[in-house]
Design goal:
Nucleotidyltransferase, domain 5; globular; alpha/beta; 283 residues
């Protein structure tokens, strides 16, 4: 039995795959080593993962946000190794997982648009070029965190039209002091910011909201796709909750940039499941 994980800032999707048993998908909280220490990761795995895994696991493939450095990979690996001491464990970035899920063995540009954002040029075997991930403060354009930040700024600076401002307050009953306190002093501020993307989706037909989302997506194309010389000649694929929920606007913006979007997956786990099912049945 092998275990495959795709972990973002908000949630982690897991698959169990065996030659004789159909794969099973379940979820735990997001595991980003930039925001959780090794003990926190270990405790989360014990509380949320173990109740779903009773079988003997021979291999674990973990694709995660925040896993771009050796130090962060080590955090995940050691936490998993304490629970599965005799298991082969490999840690990769969430971008690597997205590229495999979206492109398979073909060349393309793979994009993540969820709580955070990123992209890479994948040649069908490996990542050839990628954007430097700067996180939700300096980057993540087009992401849920970016959308939430843009909405909150418009609300707090009174740029949000009065009818939207009233709807916002009715929905969240949140004051400026609480917003600032949560962003700067509490854990997982990126998740908090991204949570306001629900308000955007609920009011997407309002011109002001529509324009907020479009502007954020145009920023994404500028910083995450137009930088690749090959972008006009390759299919561009997306995965993530924001890409899925706002797919219509995303496609509209892509047309303005003369970019062809080939595939939009709600989660990379769909493509990873197909990939590993092929591997395990070949082995």
């Amino acid at each position: 039995m092998i275990l495959v994980a795709d972990s973002g800032a908000t949630k982690t999707d897991w698959i169990k795959i065996d030659k004789k048993i159909s794969s099973k998908i379940f979820q735990t909280s997001g595991i980003n080593p930039n925001f959780i220490d090794e003990k926190g990761i270990h405790d989360l795995l014990c509380n949320e993962l173990l109740p779903n895994v009773q079988e003997k696991i021979s291999e674990i493939y973990f694709y995660g946000a925040g896993c771009s450095t050796d130090e962060n990979k080590q955090k995940i690996s050691e936490a998993l190794n304490k629970i599965f001491p005799e298991t082969k464990i490999e840690i990769y970035t969430d971008l690597h997982g997205a590229a495999i899920a979206l492109c398979g063995d073909q060349s393309g540009i793979a994009c993540i648009l969820g709580t955070g954002s990123n992209s890479c040029f994948f040649d069908g075997e490996k990542i050839i070029n990628k954007v430097t991930s700067l996180g939700y403060i300096l980057g993540d354009e087009g992401s849920g965190a970016h959308l939430g930040t843009t909405l909150l700024k418009a609300y707090l600076t009174k740029e949000l039209p009065i009818e939207l401002s009233e709807l916002f307050y009715q929905k969240y009953k949140i004051e400026q002091s609480e917003i600032i306190q949560t962003i700067y002093n509490k854990p997982f501020p990126n998740r908090f910011l991204a949570s306001f993307s629900y308000f955007l989706s609920e009011n997407i037909n309002h011109p002001f909201i529509n324009q907020i989302v479009k502007n954020c997506f145009h920023d994404f194309f500028k910083y995450y796709i137009l930088i690749y010389p090959e972008y006009k000649d390759l299919p561009v694929h997306f995965t993530g909750s924001i890409a899925h929920v706002f797919s219509e606007l995303l496609i509209q913006c892509s047309i303005e940039h003369k970019i062809h979007i080939d595939k939009i997956l709600q989660s990379p786990i769909e493509g990873l499941q197909e990939y590993y099912q092929k591997i395990i049945h070949i082995a």
